[in-house]
Amino acid sequence: MKHLPLLEQRKIEAKVLAPLIRAFEDEFGREKTHTLVGKTIETLARGEGKGIAQELEGTPIEKVASLLPRFNEGDALELDVLKQDASCYEFNVTRCRFAEFYKELGMPELGQLLSCNRDFALSEGISSELELERSQTIMEGASHCDFRFRVKNPPPKNQD
After folding, report:
1. Above 80 in pLDDT, residue 32?
2. Which helix (H) or strand (E) holds 95?
3. How many C-alpha atoms does 54 have within 13 Å on its Cβ side?
């Protein structure tokens, strides 16, 4: 499925996983099911991040910046870049077609579990020196997603 835009991949996954997740919720409870699904998605995302780390050149921040177009294929996202330098990449997602899709499907809470849940583990997989801070998502009802990628121990700035 690598040749498909990421949004299309998530749509296919959701149409298969949603009925399974609902069945597991009925059988084992929502909390237990979501915990297990969340851990599984994080493990997959961490592995994807490690693959990306090997595939892409550059610093962790450069890898995140070069990865963003993959997430945005098919105009899946609208974003405002706030700051980008050697130690950070900060942006807000102001429109998310992933969130729109999960809402149309009638399962916005699964969007958080199946899509947004990947971001932190993916970052960890890309580099242990990469830190992601995000306090809100459109998927959870916020006006925007606030992504703040930073290098944990940035090199000192020149004092010239």
Report:
1. yes
2. strand 88-96
3. 5
Angle at 142 between CA 141 and CA 143, to 5 degrees: 120
CA-to-CA distance for 94 and 20, rounded, in angstroms? 31
Q: Is CATH 3.30.1380 the classification given to domain 6-151?
A: yes
Q: Are 78 and 100 in contact, with CB atoms under 8 Å apart?
A: no
C-alpha gyration radius of the chain: 17
pLDDT digits (tens, 9 = 90+) for 125-138: 999 999 999 999 99
Tokens 């599984």 belong to 40
Domains in the chain: boundaries: 6-151
pLDDT 10s digits, 88-115: 999 999 999 999 999 998 888 899 999 9
